[in-house]
Write a sequence for this structure.
């Protein structure tokens, strides 16, 4: 309940300040427009379409998901949070906020992407949905802990994508592969190894994040 | 009656190679007003943050006891109230919204009667629904006192408590410190002689540099 209260506070704060939502919305529109303009009338292959989909998701995440901790640090309210909540409450509340944000953001990207790109056709939608959910969970877990780490650093804007790249690489590569499987109509049976990788990634990153957060949060 | 005690044993703090202070020892029990003084940069705020469990000491130990039982670090925040210049409340919310969210996040019920009483005491009741960003620095300082006291903590830490306050505000603070010290521990970190005159014991951090 305490984590939910923190989540409620963050949602309410976000709706008033539009700290992350505006950045994310603008980034999605600009990125999709640039890709559309650069492609022109060319017909791109389905494998490239699947890859580009995750490129947009990766960079959009980089532009918005760090805000959950960076905004607290920049405004100086981190100390206030430390005085009212245990580290586990802060982590769970922020994670919940990022989970909702990631799902909302990536659902919008998926809808716009399938509407704008004719080659983005999913033959196995159930596989895409499963991999999409698992990948989004991993993305939210990883982004939240990386945001907590970089919020204490000086060059936050630069550090976030640099630190995220090696941590998110296994997740993004496997997610690209799963999206290609879904576009090819591959069965769950064939894709089970990749699904297991994403599932394991989620469990590992959540466990590591939960264990590390106390040390990151307390100076 | 709730018995709270704070034991500080051989606390040292360094930032990199720079020694802030070393060898600090004291023990405080309920109904005490304790002062921390020292020139600018002597580490008053650092010591306050260590006592409030916001940062860790480089070496040494702090023990917070409630009725003879040590309080776990993850539960400490419910027993501590802090007022300090570096404490920032949420500008985009009103005073009432801030205090309501703080109660919910702490996991305690919002005591409207107590909050209204404190808002009246600190002359903020008529502005309780205004956004904090419209407050003056003095009003924000008053709101920090309400934030620090609304959950009835047993250890109240006041870092430069009278900064930004007018004479009327200072009087309210001094009255409050005396009242809270009847049953709780109050720690005041300041250079103001009037603030420190309330304390029964004071340590000067310039004596802890070796």
């Amino acid at each position: 309940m305490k984590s939910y209260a923190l989540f409620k506070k963050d949602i309410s704060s976000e709706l008033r300040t539009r700290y992350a939502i505006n950045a994310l919305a603008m980034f999605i529109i600009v990125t999709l427009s640039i890709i559309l303009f650069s492609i022109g009338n060319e017909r791109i292959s389905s494998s490239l379409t699947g890859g580009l989909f995750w490129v947009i998701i990766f960079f959009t995440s980089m532009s918005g998901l760090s805000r959950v901790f960076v905004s607290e640090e920049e405004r100086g309210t981190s100390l206030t949070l430390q005085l009212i909540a245990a580290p586990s409450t802060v982590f769970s509340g922020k994670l919940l906020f990022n989970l909702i944000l990631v799902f909302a953001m990536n659902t919008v990207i998926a809808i716009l992407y399938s509407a704008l790109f004719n080659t983005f056709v999913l033959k196995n939608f159930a596989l895409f949905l499963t991999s999409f959910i698992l990948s989004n969970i991993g993305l939210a877990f990883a982004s939240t802990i990386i945001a907590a780490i970089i919020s204490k650093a000086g060059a936050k804007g630069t550090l976030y994508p640099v630190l995220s790249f090696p941590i998110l690489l296994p997740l993004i590569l496997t997610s690209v592969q799963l999206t290609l499987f879904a576009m090819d109509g591959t069965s769950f049976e064939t894709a089970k190894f990749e699904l297991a990788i994403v599932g394991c990634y989620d469990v590992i990153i959540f466990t590591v994040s939960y264990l590390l957060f106390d040390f990151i949060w307390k100076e | 009656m709730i018995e709270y005690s704070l034991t500080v044993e051989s606390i040292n703090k360094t930032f990199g190679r720079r020694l802030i202070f070393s060898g600090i020892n004291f023990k405080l029990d309920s109904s005490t007003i304790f002062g921390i003084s020292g020139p600018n940069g002597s580490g008053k705020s650092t010591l306050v943050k260590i006592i409030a469990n916001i940062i860790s000491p480089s070496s040494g130990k702090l023990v917070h006891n409630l009725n003879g039982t040590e309080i776990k670090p993850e539960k400490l925040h419910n027993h501590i109230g802090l007022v300090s210049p570096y404490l920032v409340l949420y500008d985009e919310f009103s005073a009432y919204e801030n205090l309501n969210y703080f109660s919910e996040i702490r996991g305690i019920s919002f005591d409207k009667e107590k909050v209204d009483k404190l808002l009246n005491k600190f002359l903020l009741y008529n502005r309780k629904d205004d956004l904090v960003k419209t407050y003056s620095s003095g009003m924000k300082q008053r709101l920090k006192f309400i934030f620090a006291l609304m959950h009835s903590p047993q250890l109240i830490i006041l870092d430069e408590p009278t900064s930004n306050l007018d004479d009327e505000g200072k009087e309210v603070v001094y009255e409050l410190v005396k009242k809270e010290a009847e049953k709780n521990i109050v720690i005041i970190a300041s250079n103001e002689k009037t603030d420190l005159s309330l304390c029964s014991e004071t340590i000067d951090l310039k004596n802890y540099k070796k």
Remarks:
- The mean pLDDT of chain B is 90.
- The radius of gyration of chain B is 17 Å.
- Residues 4-208 of chain B form a domain with the Rossmann fold fold (CATH 3.40.50.300).
